[in-house]
Sequence to fold (154 residues):
Amino acid sequence: DIAAFEQLYRQHLPMVYGLAARLTLDTHLAEDLTQEVFIKVWQRLDRFRGESRFSTWLYRVATNVVLDAMRRKQPIMAVAGDTDVPDTAPQPALQRELEQQLTRLPERARVVLLLHDMVGMTHEEIGEQLDIAPGTSKAQLFRARKLYREFDDE
Fold:
């Protein structure tokens, strides 16, 4: 049902784009990956079994697409001046400041922080996705949170 899929697309577009933009720090790549995510979702919609919320499944597909792209394009290098994640909706000043601080984190620490705290992945799942040990994921999360707090103190 194309009309129903269009509604899902409009509802979840900001979330998918936001995830891609935060992980890659590249607005153009995030736009391309967002389209790729929805193409994959359309192609694999019959694989959604309804055992979880649709948004959870969509997050998982989006995370896989973005991480695969990041692996192909190692290391991610944000274009100068293109590190601000654009607003998908009006945001309060605090939200923009938090986003700015997020862009200052080292790539691996930022990715682990987002996958753990935003997507809700376990350290085991993150380890599988990034090909690292769960302990390394925990250490990167600790590092990211520590650096984030230090940025807050500046």
